Structures are given as C-alpha cells and as structure tokens.
C-alpha cells in the first residue's frame, strides 16, 4: 500500500472530531444517547429539550467529554420558538455540520377522533420542526460544501398498527421529504438519510413498562415486547450507532436512504 493510500484511509476513532452537531431534542431517550455518542466521538453538540431538568442533567454528562457543548430550552411544537432557538444555536456554533432531527410525539386515536389542535401539534413537532431546522442550517452547509442531515423517523412510517394515524403520517412525511432533499443537495456535498427505529427500550418505553404492576402483568408485557421482532428489543445505543454511521465519513456514499433499525420486525409476518 502506498504512503498516499495510507494517508487517505479514514480514522474511525473520534469520527466526528471538529464537527458541530445539532440534536433537536436530547434531554433524555434516544436523542440523549446520540448526543453523548457524538460528543465522545469528538463533536461539539448543541442539544434542545423542552424538559429543562432533564436537559440540565444531560448536559452535565455531555460537557464532561465535550466541554464546549451547549443545551437549549426548546419546544419543537412551537414554530416561532424553533426558529428563534435555531438562530441562537447558529450564532453560538458559527454553523452546523450535522443535524439530527430526533423528536417524536404520539397521540393515539382513530381518524374521526382527531381534533385540529392535536393534528397541528403532531404535524409541527414530528415533521415541520425538522424542516424548519434544516432550512436554517442548510445555507451554511451549502457554503461549506458539506453536511449531513439524519432524521429519526419510526417503523410506523411504513409498518404500523391501529390508532397511529397522525404519528404514522407525520413520520412518513419525514421519510419522503428526506428522499427529495437528498436529490436536491447531493451536488452540494450534503447527504440526507433517515433511521426508522423499531422497538427500542428507551426512557419512554421503560416508563411504560414501569406503569404495569410488578408480577404477572409486567412479565406478560415484557414477553409481548420480546416477541415483536426476531432479535431482542433494541437499546438506545443501537440507534445512536446508526446515527453516528450516517453522520460521519463512513457513510460518505450513502444518501436518500431509509434504514430500519428494528431487530428484524419489518421482515417478520406477525400472526
């Protein structure tokens, strides 16, 4: 192997060294796992969350490995707040190299039960907020000729169950928009990809597990979760690892893709 070829090999340690990453919501859950992994891989992360206490605790962990990282109180259901806080982040960071849209809220119910207020909240939070953030960070990415946008969608965007009308719709819109954006910005050096998690034992899921009394009820629920996919239920780190792959140079030839990180659930025929 020539000396030039050796120099051109990628360094997979601290893959995001010097990168500035915006994680739209990372006070807890999958977003926090992504923010922590990115920080450990050399990125300065800028993290939003509407839960101020969770954000404060998360940033203590993140700044222990990435001292320049910062957290921001941010309610992504409010368009004006999303725009204002993103402007603040861009001023503080001087630009964003990686955007990860992590937010996802749900409200179960059949279509005839949805109110305009609930529909608007899910649309703004799950879809429009990500488009607003992308609109803000893209000019800088275009100017620098590089960037990566990673959307955290959901298996429900393609394979769902009763009662998930608006959640599935908003996440499906996110998938579709990412495919078009990948085409729009490929010649600018910007890649856009989507991760669809399946069952992940996130903070939210663990809250749901804890809502069942200890004993037969909780055991039955956990058994149900175990049987939803061929592999055991996923961990938050599984999604963070996929996000790291898409954010860094290991995936420099990957754009416009929707990647299911679901333990095989999307290929299993359920009874």
Kindly state the mean pLDDT as a whole number? 91
Helix content: 40-55%
Q: What separation lies between the terminal Cα atoms? A: 53 Å
Q: How many structural domains?
A: 2
CATH superfamily of the largest domain: NAD(P)-binding Rossmann-like Domain
Q: Which strand order does the major sheet show? A: 3-2-1-4-5-6-7
CATH-assigned fold name of the largest domain: Rossmann fold
Number of helices: 9
Quickly name the level 1 CATH class of the largest domain: Alpha Beta
Tally the beta strands: 7
Strand content: 5-15%
Any idea what the shape is? globular
- Unreliable segments of 5+ consecutive residues: 1-7
CATH architecture assignment name of the largest domain:
3-Layer(aba) Sandwich
Biggest β-sheet: count, sense, barrel? Answer: 7 strands, parallel
Order of helices and strands: HEHEHEHEHEHEHHHE
